[in-house]
From TrEMBL:
Example GO molecular function: hydrolase activity
Upper taxonomic lineage: Bacteria, Bacillati, Actinomycetota, Actinomycetes, Geodermatophilales
Gene3D superfamilies assigned to the protein according to its UniProt record, in alphabetical order: Nucleoside Triphosphate Pyrophosphohydrolase
Name of this chain's protein: NUDIX hydrolase
Domain of life (superkingdom): Bacteria
Length: 269
């Protein structure tokens, strides 16, 4: 037996909008060459960068200590997770959850981040030449933690060599901004209703890991963005770490409450 890998702190964001068929969520299909979840459909997100904990970042909305209560972690980790959620959403979807801050607690949302100057800074974030704190400070913006809601907490099982302690957030697409397929880690991006995404999973056309399919199932209960933001689970969130089960019908992830989720692997190219 070997010692399980220590889970890396990570954040992922369920970016939402109201579409013709109801609530839609922004989904990425990770390229098959990725070392983790290659070929799987997922949300924008990734691991925490050490600079996500910068304490001089302008901040509007619930303070880090409030997020620490929601996620059952220390204040430093909470700050890192919220910053990682905002940074990764900008890096992988071209959407920035930030705005001006007049010092009174009121903040407007930046309306458009699609210009060439923004793209240059997004690329600098990706290469780690620029931190989120530096980007916001340079533009006189504040991180808008009030645009995020805690939604779920999953930890990769100990049997996996690559593990993540992932906090899931929900956020509405800001007015004036558009999600763009800009991630080099994905070969497809789409807005889908949770029901449509799960229907594609059922046919094998859209493989995804259990945290994605389970949270899509949770989203399916909400008719629109407002309901999803208002219906975030009670705090603190309880971490879910599934076990695995092999049966004649296939391989399953088994959640602590007994729910079983069939594991679907991507088809070869």
């Amino acid at each position: 037996m070997t010692t399980p890998a220590e889970p890396r702190q990570a954040a992922t964001v369920l970016l939402l909008r109201d579409g013709r068929q109801g609530l839609e969520v922004y989904l990425l299909r990770r390229t098959k060459g990725m070392p983790f979840a290659g070929g799987m459909t997922a949300y924008p997100g990734g691991g925490v960068d050490p600079r996500d904990g910068d304490t001089d970042i302008a901040w509007a909305g619930p303070a880090p200590e409030r997020w620490a209560e929601a996620f059952g972690c220390d204040e430093r980790t909470a700050r890192e997770l919220v910053c990682a959620a905002v940074r990764e959403t900008f890096e992988e979807a071209g959407v920035l959850l930030a705005g001006t801050d007049d010092g009174s607690g009121a903040a407007g949302v930046v309306p458009d981040v699609s210009g060439d100057d923004w793209e240059e800074q997004r690329q600098a974030l990706l290469s780690r030449e620029l931190s989120l704190a530096e980007l916001l400070a340079g533009r006189g913006l504040a991180l808008r933690s009030d645009l995020l809601r805690p939604f779920a907490h999953w930890i990769t099982p100990p049997v996996e060599p690559r593990r993540y302690d992932t906090k899931f957030f929900v956020a509405a697409l800001p007015v004036g901004q558009e999600a763009r397929h800009v991630s080099g880690e994905a070969d497809e991006a789409a807005w889908l209703t949770p029901a449509a995404a799960l229907a594609e999973l059922a046919t094998g056309a859209r493989p995804m890991l259990p945290p994605t399919s389970h949270t899509l199932g949770q989203l399916a209960a909400f008719p629109d963005v407002a309901a999803a933001l208002a219906g975030s689970p009670p705090e603190p969130l309880h971490a879910i770490s599934p076990t695995f089960e092999q049966t004649p019908d296939g391989r399953w992830a088994v959640l602590p409450d007994g729910t079983r989720i069939r594991l679907v692997v991507p088809l070869p190219s």
